[in-house]
Amino acid sequence: MVAEDDEKQAELVRRYLEREGHAVRVVGDGLAVLDAVRHREPDLLVLDVMMPRADGLDVVRVLRAEDRELPVLMLTARSTEDDLLLGLDLGADDYMTKPYSPRELMARVRTLLRRTRRPAAPEAVAEDPVLRVGALVVDPERHEVSVGGAAVECTPGEFRILAALAAGPDRVFSRQRLLEELHGFDRYISSRTVDVHVMNLRKKIERAPRRPERLLTVFGVGYKLTDPAKAAARRA
């Protein structure tokens, strides 16, 4: 929701938000904001401070008094430290002064939405945490791996690397990225550590470890996990 009484400013913000894929509702005064939020609470409120009927500071004060936790990004022509602190103390999540860069505004919107993303409703079907790449199945919650239904025993380090690869099938992971999965886990780690884990994993998940079909090397870059059946179909 965009709360802005300047029509040109409101239209500019609306267009930028819609380009980012958001559905946008524009309201032009403080009381209208409160009515609209009570009717259907948005995922984020971009709120101008200087508005008729009730200013943005009063709007935030009322929303927080009603225990509404929607993220609020305030926009204002005021730029003194006291004004900024007052807005944040009342419960605003972020603050931008006019004139502002629309691109920076969009970046801050993305950051706020990531930081305050709401959990799925209770009635929603929970996302399956199990990772599947063809016949290879990795279950992070149970710490289990299987290939074609046959259980595969993995060390903790091997499991971390395999789970990271399975979460992004066909994506190339650099050795450095895979090393990050091992930090705080293996006491002594290096790029060679990753290579050893990959070599051992191939012995466990490949039919012919010297001619791997699942866990592939991308020379000069790193490793990727792929579904051999899909790869064969693409070649065909």
From TrEMBL:
<dbReference type="Pfam" id="PF00486">
    <property type="entry name" value="Trans_reg_C"/>
</dbReference>
<keyword id="KW-0238">DNA-binding</keyword>
<dbReference type="InterPro" id="IPR016032">
    <property type="entry name" value="Sig_transdc_resp-reg_C-effctor"/>
</dbReference>
<feature type="domain" description="Response regulatory">
    <location>
        <begin position="1"/>
        <end position="113"/>
    </location>
</feature>
<dbReference type="InterPro" id="IPR011006">
    <property type="entry name" value="CheY-like_superfamily"/>
</dbReference>
<feature type="DNA-binding region" description="OmpR/PhoB-type">
    <location>
        <begin position="128"/>
        <end position="227"/>
    </location>
</feature>
<keyword id="KW-0805">Transcription regulation</keyword>
<keyword id="KW-0597">Phosphoprotein</keyword>
<dbReference type="InterPro" id="IPR001867">
    <property type="entry name" value="OmpR/PhoB-type_DNA-bd"/>
</dbReference>
<protein>
    <submittedName>
        <fullName>Response regulator transcription factor</fullName>
    </submittedName>
</protein>
<dbReference type="InterPro" id="IPR039420">
    <property type="entry name" value="WalR-like"/>
</dbReference>
<feature type="modified residue" description="4-aspartylphosphate">
    <location>
        <position position="48"/>
    </location>
</feature>
<dbReference type="Pfam" id="PF00072">
    <property type="entry name" value="Response_reg"/>
</dbReference>
<keyword id="KW-0902">Two-component regulatory system</keyword>
<keyword id="KW-0804">Transcription</keyword>
<feature type="domain" description="OmpR/PhoB-type">
    <location>
        <begin position="128"/>
        <end position="227"/>
    </location>
</feature>
<dbReference type="InterPro" id="IPR036388">
    <property type="entry name" value="WH-like_DNA-bd_sf"/>
</dbReference>
<dbReference type="InterPro" id="IPR001789">
    <property type="entry name" value="Sig_transdc_resp-reg_receiver"/>
</dbReference>
